Amino acid sequence: MTQLKSHYAAVVVGGGQAGLSASHYLSRAGIDHVVIEKNTVMNKWRDERWDAFCLVTPNWQCQLPDHPYDGDDPNGFMVKEEILAYLNRFAAKVNAPVLEHTTVTALEKRGDVFRIETTAGTFTAHAVILATSLYGEPEIPRAGERLPEDIVQVHTAAYRNAGQLPEGAVMVVGSGQSGAQIAEDLHLAGRKVHLATGNAPRCARFYRGRDVVDWLWDVGQYDITVADDGMGKKKHDTNHYLTGRDGGRDIDLRAFARQGMALYGRVRGVSGGKMLFEPNLKANLDAADRVYNGINALIDRHIAERGIAAPPPSVYTPEWEPAHETTELDLEAAGITSVVWATGFRPNWAFVGLPIFDGTGYPVHRRGVTDVPGLYVLGLPWLWTWGSGRFLSVGRDAEHVVGALAGALAAGRREGAGRFAEAEEVS
């Protein structure tokens, strides 16, 4: 077990793939550090994924530092147990100095030294990397408080399978990646599913003979950065819904509707045992399909410009349209006994007592480097590219952040900062 010291050159907050990637590069650079994890390493992958969970991107995109995908199915999609095995092998390689079951309760800066308060004690550091991601605490709307008491409520972080829910129909709220996949999981289990949609876009799984991710890699989409024109708002975008289940396929909510799934617009509240919806189901479906066709059109242009031999192009045409917009639903009359909240997470940065956040609560940074000297963020969606925060590019982001951190520490040593020398002596 890692023993807490009075001072470290660097501290990493968060023991997921981002935090361990940072530890990998800190160790390579010979920088004394510790990783603080409030639960256990990689706990979200183990404890907050449903039984049928699998990767949405192909296995070949698993490119953690010095730990590329090492299986025999690069174009497949690892299931939960395979993902955990892959991550456990990575954690063993990194062998990070981790303090598990330790919560950071306060982070402040005094002069050029950070003061970190934790449940295991207080210590100082010259640099801190916040690798806690945006997926901190499950987000459940206040409307959940007004649901009838006999309805079971489960967030996606706690959902495991259809069998854990009481018999009866299920309302899934949210049609992002998790919501759409869990709605499918319940649908395949023979449950009557009601799905409240949102503004999530969708993407084809395969198009013109290849996985769409492969095409987008060739097109260069994964090299686009948030610094490019019009990309600054991408960090707030919802991920496209599709699945890698059973070898990968599209998720088409209209097809689900033809098979008996009930679809609604965005939830706007709960009142008197009824769930209320905005009349925007058609708009949500149409917007998702525009993105779907737009991605395919981008691939079409790439194929045409390069004269690539491929199957002919196609355009998705809806085969189902909502006959009307349902704006309220009596939950008891519909036989709904449980609600799965696929409404995302909220970050928990309450312990950070430093001015690095914008009006939305998102940390302001340039490729992980904040305006507070020595403070960095890592593992966020679109930290720099589309692959940031994922197995694909979190390692590249970590390498950049640790490079900036190492440079700053070296500059401090060259300047002979008295406080730095004193702290090094204490440690």
TrEMBL record:
Keywords of the record: Oxidoreductase
SUPFAM superfamilies, sorted: FAD/NAD(P)-binding domain
Classification via InterPro entries: Auxin_biosynth/cation_transpt (IPR050982), CHP04046_FMN-dependent (IPR024000), FAD/NAD-bd_sf (IPR036188)
Top-rank taxon, per record: Bacteria
UniProt protein name: MSMEG_0569 family flavin-dependent oxidoreductase
Origin species: Xanthobacter oligotrophicus
